[in-house]
Structure prediction request, 84 residues.
Amino acid sequence: MDLGIRGKRAIVCASSKGLGRGVAEKLAEAGVDLTLNARTEAVLRETAKEIADTYGVKVQIVAADVTTEQGRKELLAAEPQPDI
Prediction:
């Protein structure tokens, strides 16, 4: 199903595993480029590689705690104008 979001950019928090990763994978399947966020860099990096390799989308990561001001700044600096 074409959702009309191919080529858009999305930020997905808590995306290294579980529900957040599921959301990231579905967006990637629809052709959305991703900025993934979680606190554990090693797991996040592995998730990003698997999603990029599987779906052929651009994936960047931001390992930061978004419950902090600094974490939010880092995330929005990496993806200042997300569509999703």
In short: The chain has a mean pLDDT of 96.
